[in-house]
Amino acid sequence: MSFSTRHSSLATRHSSLVTLLLNPWFQIAFSTFCVAIAELFLKRGAAQAPKLAASVNWTGISGLGIPLVWIGILLMAISFVSWLYVLRFLPLSIAFPLSQFVHVLVPLFSWIFLGELISPRRWAGITLVVLGVFTIAKPVARLEEKL
Q1: How far, in Å, CA of 129 to CA of 32, rounded?
Q2: Residues 69-126: tens digit of each pLDDT
Q3: What are the backbone angles phi and psi of residue 129, rounded to the nearest 5°?
């Protein structure tokens, strides 16, 4: 393979990656995933935080000394930037309901990575959220064709 062929192939892959990253549908998924992962880091960090005097312990401020909390905060900030990008291109009435998939991911990730239990009522709620997201996804498919 010649240099120009390799260079052209790399340029095509780079262009495809940029196109994917700038796709607002990808950004909704990315933003939602960042929030879900951030919540795991915040939970782990909060659990490790030292207890302070009762008068200030309710604030959770001691968690700011835990690196996991800062990773969670960073992921929330990344999600926020991604969300602002989404809002430039998609109607809020579509984007916001799709972002609520976080209510599925957080319990599932908590169950998988933190060993938390999910009650039958919570499973029913997760099912309803999934059905709601799929209900919203139908008009999204039509909207995608217009973009």
Answers
A1: 14
A2: 999 999 999 999 999 999 999 989 889 989 999 999 999 999 999 999 999 999 999 9
A3: -65, -45
Separation CA 108–CA 44 (nearest Å):
15
- Mean pLDDT rounded to a whole number for the chain: 86
Q: Does residue 1 have a pLDDT over 60?
A: no
- Residue 12 in any domain: the answer is no
Which pLDDT value is given to residue 133? Answer: 86
Structurally, the chain folds into a number of domains equal to 1
Decide if 104 is inside a domain.
Answer: yes
- Six token digits for residue 112: 């998988």
* CB-CB neighbours of 37 under 10 Å: 20
Which among 18, 140, 28, 15 is positioned nearest to 82, based on CA atoms? 28
Judge whether 118 lies within some domain.
yes
- Cα distances (Å, whole numbers) of residue 17 to 14, 26, 52, 64: 5, 11, 47, 35
Answer whether residue 101 is part of any domain: yes
User: Quick check: 114 and 140 in contact, CB under 8 A?
Assistant: no
Is residue 28 within 8 Å of residue 95, measured between CB atoms?
yes
Residue 60, classed as helix, strand or coil, is coil
